[in-house]
Design goal:
Strand order of the largest sheet: 2-1-3-4-5
Order of helices and strands: EHEHEHEHEHHHHHHHHHHHHHHHHH
Low-confidence stretches: 1-5
Helix content: 55-70%
Radius of gyration: 25 Å
Distance between the termini: 64 Å
Number of helices: 21
Oligomer: single chain
Strand content: 5-15%
Structural class: mainly alpha
Length: about 425
């Protein structure tokens, strides 16, 4: 039996994040009419994150567009999720004045609990919050078990919830399937998804079953299911991502690139997807596509918790391939600045910097950079990946300096599978 609650926000702690003071005031008044009294407000995303770090909220209402050159609502939610700042019991609603396809897809992909399009009435706000409180209440025990990393208990509670709450049966089954996948219990996950599909043709269940086939190595079955989803529901971009991964496993890198390009046309605001397309295009020697996608990933990563030094590094490598040495060097300098507190990123940037100088004929610059990279490596040898170590080995062995060549030989000896 599901819980039916009236909207009473007394006792609820609420955070409003919006760059317009008038809207913050209007929203605060609306919430007060529903009984809310503990309401904080922030004018930008950075301040909002500080509030979220400092105290726990029951409801967060965050505007999508928080001003030019500012962290947006999607990035606030990404950061909160990435660093575990919000629990599953917290209601997070994105608010927006835009309703473009690009914006809607961006919002959908970062998966808030709901989103509201401005302007909206008190009744609309009340109904959304009522529904979300009801849903969170019904799933509270499962979310608590997940928070405690007791996934076996969470699965059992999903079974219990599905039998007691017909209204939320499919959501409980969806969550159970995800938990089974997370535990690597692919047989149980398959049973869940096939059971759902026997009732109704639902994209998420078909996607889940496709993941089961992918993880168990049945790539042809996985490909067929992902292709079906794309054909049936062209806006379901997660299926494109998994289809691309499957094509890569089947060594069809051109197909993998094409399907990701199709996904980006539908939803271009995903850093991970832009990065993946850039890497695949780079492997396919399609440097024009790689440059465009990696530039998008770098731009989207600014002020985002998902910012990744590899996007900068790969972009610099692509630009070097395109003989744009000055631009590649600019990307590396920016990478060093953005990730100055990340020793691995600094080493990676310095190695590429040396390669850029070598390619552009700046022998002095190349020697200085490679010498610096060799010292950085010796200070963090146990934290360096084999791929990065081999990149350093190649750079060091290309110099005429005995000290760098010594480091290069050590790298190659330690990390190469052929030595």
């Amino acid at each position: 039996m599901f819980v039916d609650l009236s909207v009473d926000l007394s006792g609820k702690s609420i955070l409003i994040i919006d760059d317009y003071a008038n809207f913050r005031g209007m929203l605060k008044t609306l919430l007060q009419t529903l009984g809310a009294s503990k309401i904080d407000s922030a004018a930008d995303g950075e301040t909002g994150i500080k509030y979220i770090r400092s105290k726990s909220y029951d409801i967060i209402l965050c505007d999508y567009n928080l001003g030019p050159d500012k962290k947006d609502g999607q990035q606030v939610l990404e950061e909160a999720k990435t660093f575990g700042l919000i629990e599953k019991s917290i209601i997070f609603i994105l608010v927006t004045a835009e309703n473009t396809d690009e914006m809607i897809m961006g919002v959908a992909e970062c998966r808030p609990d709901d989103y509201l399009v401005k302007p909206f009435t008190e009744e609309v706000l009340m109904n959304r919050i009522k529904h979300l409180i009801e849903m969170k209440t019904n799933f509270s025990s499962v979310h608590s078990a997940i928070q405690q990393k007791d996934h076996i208990k969470a699965i059992s509670l999903c079974d219990e919830g599905a039998s007691k709450s017909p209204k939320y049966m499919l959501e409980f089954m969806r969550l159970k399937g995800d938990l089974c996948l997370r535990l690597g219990d692919y047989d149980s996950a398959a049973v869940v998804y096939k059971s759902v599909l026997s009732l109704r043709n639902i994209s998420w269940a078909k996607l889940g079953l496709g993941k089961v086939y992918f993880y168990t190595g049945d790539y042809l079955m996985a490909k067929n299911l992902f292709q079906e989803i794309v054909k049936e529901n062209k806006a379901y971009v997660a299926a494109y991502d998994w289809l691309s991964k499957t094509y890569e496993k089947l060594e069809s890198s051109d197909e993998a690139q094409n399907i990701l390009a199709d996904a980006i046309k539908i939803s271009p605001k995903s850093i991970v997807r832009q990065s993946s397309l850039g890497v695949i295009a780079q492997k396919n020697n399609d440097y024009t596509t790689a440059e465009k996608s990696l530039k998008s990933a770098v731009k989207l990563g600014k002020r985002s918790a998902l910012n990744n030094p590899s996007n900068h590094a790969n972009l610099a490598k692509v630009l070097l391939k395109k003989e744009s040495g000055d631009e590649a060097l600019s990307v590396i300098k920016n990478m060093e600045k953005e990730f100055k507190n990340n020793p691995t990123a600094t080493l990676q940037a310095t190695i590429i910097e040396g390669n850029i100088y070598t390619a552009t004929g700046d022998e002095k610059g190349a020697k200085t950079a490679i010498k610096k990279a060799a010292k950085l490596y010796e200070n963090s040898v146990n934290k360096v990946s084999s791929e990065l170590a081999m990149d350093l080995a190649k750079a060091c062995l290309g110099t005429g300096r005995s000290e760098e060549r010594r480091v290069g030989k050590e790298c190659r000896s330690r990390w190469s599978p052929y030595h």
